């Protein structure tokens, strides 16, 4: 599909020249040091074509995008009983809000806010050592991406751990309600390492393929999750994947997507493409400014929005 | 499509026999008196076929579903400047919450919660008499449905007006922030009448066709809204159409939808179908219990979820 | 007490020369037009001596200070059953907050925030015409002050009514919870007129005497309220009389007090003095900036704080 | 004062026979095991007379009452700069609420809610080892009470530490806002030990004398704090000393007081008495049910309410 290749290039070119690039996350030094001029885009189509542009091979900290893989892993472990401990409604308040937890007795609104992801980490821990749980997630992600080069950035993990007081507060707060089952510091250990997974746009788009293929690793290949579960993870990404700007992302882009403060976004066009965009500068809602814009351009040009007649 | 006709019948049969039907809205007598044993379903396909079952010709109070038509009308009047006065994020709190308005300075989170719909009514009022504004909306709805038999149930409108203290509070509260431009009682008059529009499942599904057809009244027919606007209204329905259970509806059904306390739900499968389901009993979130279940069955059987590979 | 007379004069002199006088309330024109350079102070001692300084004879809009007299009147009508409809805890949020009402099912936290005062007005209305209810309160206030010259400023009442959307919202919101028994517009009529009572510092201090004398109009005179009730009204003034700055007023001044956005403050030194201070400029919490400072000076110099060993 | 001795006895007799005694705090075993039938009362008058009744010599866990002594100690260290890190307004929400911290950027509303007390502990830690800080507070409390027998109940301290997830959450949450200066676990160590101080009613009433004497250890004795500071601590106790029931305590009792979940209450009648009441059963607000009732009886009979003409 020659047009798509050119489109990806054109979008990368537009983004390379953009003047307003947002603000790079500064809460930990390893993120604050990332060069804001970078932009990467990779589109993997249903047919398996890979179109990349910009710094699409540069690894970045996927941060909250890891919540998609961790949720998939946890659902594999405990199935729909997971929803007794985590809701599936948009949060309606900033992503680190603790207010909602008090009102709702320690049950986080969805698995893509920090509190919800901590419960998911607690499920994935499952009585093992944190090291094993994080190793398992890393192997799962490598499998999804067909790429053993994916690693955890230990400097990022250490920095998260040293400054993550708000997440420590969240984990202990939910522990007080009985919704964290392990010692909070163990659950937090899993969580901080999961956020520190580093991937390139190409690796990330590849890892997202199972959500494009209705739960299959590849068309005709082994099943990662059931079709229903793939659909539901996509639904959660659309309603909850961009913190308090999820509605805006659905409005502008119209695709299930999950963002991270490292500037990455994974977006899924079911049956059509798995897409990863990356640019370190964030908008006021904590989502990649150029990544969002690139996906808006791509969805507009391809008609891939799930809200189009198709 | 013989299978679809049978599917619609089968679903209606299952719903007719359901024992747990939820609770009929009781806040005004005309709604409280509705027989909870009723159920209707109507599916209009992209090809124009109409499949109905149950009490699909029985008019019911569409209530909040009117917010979809009113929003479409208001966007036609003021375009995207509307979004200066209304947000487009899920609310994260019960549908009548006033808390969020205080935190966000009188700007409602989205046009499908009551506060947002009141601002939309205020826009549609546009300096005219309430009677004219509501007449215009009624004509627009009749046009969308190709049905001049759609009327306003004056008994419902009067009952809303007599007991709608919470909506009166919302309107006056936003007036204090300057986000209601007319006298609150005029804006409320438009709003209460709009909620009292009565439609059957068939009329409602017909009125929803433009959202299935990418903004066209019919394929090849006149344009109601641009393709982008149709897509965006669908996106808002998916993220915000079921109050604080929007995430759950997306998770279970996977279609843009808008519910009303009269027990109706309008759902859109872009490019495939416009669907109306109705059953008066509501679940704990104020959405039709059997209407939701019927749509879940329909989406599962047809694969129409927007999150499917298609 | 020659020293007290001089002290009152000295304080008025200091306040006359103060450069930072706060901001005059601007939400209605009759208040916005008041000259911010004015300051008045009047101290009535237990022995009946009256010490005044500054513009102590100038009538001003007492606004929320009227809540003390209205509460006293309502307790006389319904006794402690009043506390089923109004709490007696500090509010912890700004004075016009509607959030707390949602959380606490339409029961205002105390009778000195607007919502609570609206319930008190609803009690005082008691099935009569608003005109009669407000006439009764005016007569009661004149009796307390021994002064028939106290009037209602109709221009203020009309302005309140024309712009009081937030209070209209509060009344309708509580009506939705069943905690306003009359038509909201009638209850609001009483409330808006009560806020528009105009009094001078001298009249206000005189009207506060019963709270200094343990509930007696004068020592040895007729009883207005029981000793217990006088004590309790004083307690409410201390914990709730200055909106979200009640703690600060207790900390700095140490006397039961009630402020109004007209810039007046009534303070009680039980057994020692009834005091009224007035200066139109308000601090960030909506309390008279110089009025508070004057009372702090007076309490410090006299040792009248209820927290002193005495 | 023979009458006072009898009054204290009579109150203890009434409380001994009370049937509704509230619920003993059950969140840690050492508190859950306390016999709910106990009641103690001790009144130390300005003249130095000590009147006791019931289990007035039985040590109990003073819990939050320690916040009074810790605040006094911290004010001695940093003076009024303390108020840059802690507010002095009633909280208006349950005592362990984290909501307010989010709204107010990590600044607790007052030093008597847990969050505020944690900041006070952080100030008292002042770069020392937790052991030293807590030793200093213990020595200060012994000095105030003239009693070297006061100790820390290590079993209580360990139990607090093992289950205090909510306090761990609070400390880390404030750390994220920069309002905890030490490592949270150190600050928490001080806090948990301070709560575990055990005192009898007699020891507690003795320790409260400086607040009755305007800041003097004894009349004519050395000064503990300035008269202004004593007054202000009393003011804070009255407005904030009983969590979300502070208004009710002021309304019913009319004295500055501080309660703890161990069932103790310290109350001050300035210039008249320092009082300690204890009964382990708590009311719905977490304050001693019989302790509050006993103080209400005492204040009514003696006329010691600060809101009385005196």
From TrEMBL, chains A, B, C, D:
* Catalytic reaction(s) noted: L-glutamine + H2O = L-glutamate + NH4(+)
Family annotation (Pfam families): Glutaminase
Q: What molecular function terms (GO) are annotated for this protein?
A: glutaminase activity
Instruction: Write down the EC number.
Output: 3.5.1.2
Top-rank taxon, per record = Bacteria
**GO biological-process terms attached to the record:** glutamate biosynthetic process; L-glutamine catabolic process
Per UniProt, the enzyme's principal EC class comes to hydrolase
The UniProt keyword set, sorted, is: Acetylation, Hydrolase
Binding of substrate occurs at 64, 114, 160, 167, 191, 243, 261
- PANTHER family from the entry? GLUTAMINASE
According to the record's subunit comment, the protein's assembly and interactions are: Homotetramer.
Entry similarity comment:
Belongs to the glutaminase family.
Full protein name: Glutaminase
Q: Which organism is it from?
A: Bosea spartocytisi
Gene name for this UniProt entry: glsA
